[in-house]
């Protein structure tokens, strides 16, 4: 794995960690839903995750990131269709997909 890909993988892990910070360690949808600042911060971190994933795919599409295309698609939706971002979908990604992504990235970094 080249240094660029390693950096982007670390960027993904950092963005996931920052989402945890933005949420204050809580997993409360009502708090998220009622706080536009938290929503925008989480969306920004998802943009970073999607952009890093997109860059990785362009350099090495064999890296084991499940749902990589969907991650990039979410990034594109948040950036380009900002007025159609569904907070329920974003919350589902935070709760279900990010823990899996974190494990996958950590595994890839350990292997290489």
UniProtKB/TrEMBL annotation:
InterPro entries: HepT-like, HepT_RNase_toxin. One of its GO terms (molecular function) is RNA nuclease activity. Pfam families: HepT-like. The lineage of its organism: Bacteria, Pseudomonadati, Bacteroidota, Cytophagia, Cytophagales. Keywords: Hydrolase, Nuclease, Nucleotide-binding, Phosphoprotein, Toxin-antitoxin system. This is DUF86 domain-containing protein. It comes from Spirosoma telluris. GO terms for cellular component: toxin-antitoxin complex. It comes from the Bacteria.
């Amino acid at each position: 794995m080249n240094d660029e890909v390693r950096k982007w993988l670390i960027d993904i892990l950092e963005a996931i960690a920052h989402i945890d910070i933005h949420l204050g360690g809580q997993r409360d949808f009502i708090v998220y839903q009622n706080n536009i600042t938290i929503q925008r911060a989480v969306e920004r971190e998802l943009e970073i995750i999607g952009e890093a994933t997109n860059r990785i795919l362009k350099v090495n599409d064999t890296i084991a990131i499940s749902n990589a295309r969907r991650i990039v698609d979410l990034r594109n939706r948040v950036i380009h269709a900002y007025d159609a971002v569904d907070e329920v979908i974003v919350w589902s990604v935070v709760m279900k997909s990010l823990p899996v992504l974190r494990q996958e990235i950590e595994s890839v970094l350990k292997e290489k």
